[in-house]
Amino acid sequence: MGDWEIDLVIGKGHTILERKTSFTVSTRVDDKSTQTVTAATIGLLIPFKSAVLTITADNGKECAHHETMTESLKCDVYFADPYCSWH
After folding, report:
1. Alpha carbon distance 64, 11 (integer Å)
2. Which of 9, 16, 22, 64 has its CA 20 to 30 A from that of 31?
3. How far, rounded to the nearest angstrom, does the alpha carbon of residue 61 sit from its chain's CA centroid?
4. Strand order in 24-27's β-sheet?
5. Does the model's pTM come out above 0.90?
């Protein structure tokens, strides 16, 4: 446990899934700005900080402040290869 995948779903909110266990946390966000998504990610995962080793995100602008996530959660942040979701 510890490898998380984040996704911003328009109309549904911000969802974070732990890959091995499928444990999911989510919240509604008002917009997809970098500040909003970064704050939502940290807020959702801080209670599980000891179980956060990596975060994998899409390549959207909303994850541009990934350094803040890395510092706050003490984890690595990776970005998916475009059009290669199976990697």
Report:
1. 21
2. 22
3. 13
4. 24-27, 13-18, 3-9, 54-57, 76-79
5. no
Q: Which residue is associated with the tokens 């911000």?
A: 14
Max distance between CA atoms of the chain, in angstroms, equals: 32
Return the SS3 of 74: coil
The enclosing domain of 63 has a CATH number of 3.30.420.10
Q: Which pLDDT tens digit goes with each residue over 52-80?
A: 999 999 888 888 999 999 999 999 999 98
Q: How many domains does the chain have?
A: 1
d(CA 73, CA 50): 8
C-alpha 44/C-alpha 74 separation (Å) is 14
Beta partners for residue 62, in sequence order: none
Query: Over 90: is that where the pLDDT of 86 sits?
Result: no
